[in-house]
Design a protein that fits this description.
By secondary structure, the chain is mainly alpha-helical. It is built from seven helices and three strands. It has one domain. It is about 75% helix and about 5% strand. It has a three-stranded antiparallel β-sheet, with helices on one face. Strand 2 (about 95) and strand 3 (about 100-105) form a beta hairpin. Helix 4 (about 45-60) packs antiparallel against helix 7 and helix 6 (about 110-130) packs antiparallel against helix 7 (about 135-174).
């Protein structure tokens, strides 16, 4: 029987420094994003951009079925946007202070960031352990479906934020 503790220690030992730095950056961004703050739509694209690059790099550079994988990614990205819109609509609260749109304190973005990192990291560990996984259509589809959905969750939050900001700007000006 495999000793789970030994496997976890080995995973931690073999994890490159840049992955730990990426995790630290994502946690910092997640905590920052979760605090009450003025909305900045452009900054909202930073974290999803990291996950998009991470996912698309694997699809293009490693997967044996990149065309099918990109199509799957796009379909599940749309599903993720829909789910994210529904989730963020229930959790995000906004208000206007001194003419600026402020998002109330909310730890949902931190949860999404950590969940996304954990899923992507786990899939990449699996690819490292089973080097033939990148050649299997089933794994390519699983990876891209999960990647597309989790990135779509971020965009759902951006959609809700954008809707509120544009609505409020019209009220502030008018």
């Amino acid at each position: 029987m495999v000793d789970v503790f030994k496997v976890l220690v080995k995973i931690i030992e073999l994890t490159p420094i840049y992955v730990w730095l990426l995790l630290a950056f994502l946690v910092q961004r997640g905590i920052s994003t979760s605090q009450e703050r003025e909305v900045n739509i452009l900054k909202s694209f930073l974290v999803p951009g990291v996950f998009i690059v991470w996912g698309l790099y694997n699809i293009v550079a490693k997967f044996a079925h990149p065309f099918s994988s990109i199509l799957t990614y796009l379909v599940f990205l749309a599903i993720g946007v829909f789910l994210g819109t529904m989730l963020y609509q229930k959790t995000y609260r906004f208000f206007v202070r001194n003419g600026a749109v402020i998002r109330a304190k909310n730890y949902f973005p931190l949860f999404i960031i950590l969940f996304n990192f954990l899923i992507k990291y786990s899939l990449n560990i699996y690819m490292y352990m089973d080097t033939d996984a990148v050649n299997r259509l089933s794994f390519n589809m699983l990876y891209t479906a999960i990647s597309g959905t989790t990135v779509g969750l971020f965009f759902g939050g951006i959609v809700i934020t954008y809707r509120y900001v544009t609505t409020q700007r019209g009220r502030i000006r008018g």
